[in-house]
Amino acid sequence: MKMNEIKELSIKDLQEKIEDMEEQQGKLLLAHSVSTLENPLVIRHNRRTIARLKTELNSRQLNEADKA
């Protein structure tokens, strides 16, 4: 997921996407520990996407706090 796609999401959508991605990450890690994934780089990609989503969510929440 690219940053310009992330910036188009609302705060609620960001939170939902983070939850979904974290759940998917947990499943991938479990699957990888049981047997090797076909493409283990998916784990890294998901981790970085989660970080991007959390960064955007945090910056938006800080901006809202500054406005209040």
Order of helices and strands: HHH
The count of DSSP E runs of length 2 or more, i.e. the number of strands, is: 0
- Could you describe the largest sheet, including whether it forms a barrel? none
Spatial separation of the terminal alpha carbons: 30 Å
Question: How much of the sequence is in beta strands?
Answer: under 5%
The portion of residues assigned to helices is over 70%
Which term fits the overall shape? elongated
Instruction: Look at the structure and give the mean pLDDT.
Output: 95
Oligomer class:
single chain
Q: Structural class of the helix and strand makeup?
A: mainly alpha
List unreliable stretches of 5+ residues.
Answer: none
Number of helices: 3
Please compute the radius of gyration using only Cα atoms. 14 Å
Number of domains: 1
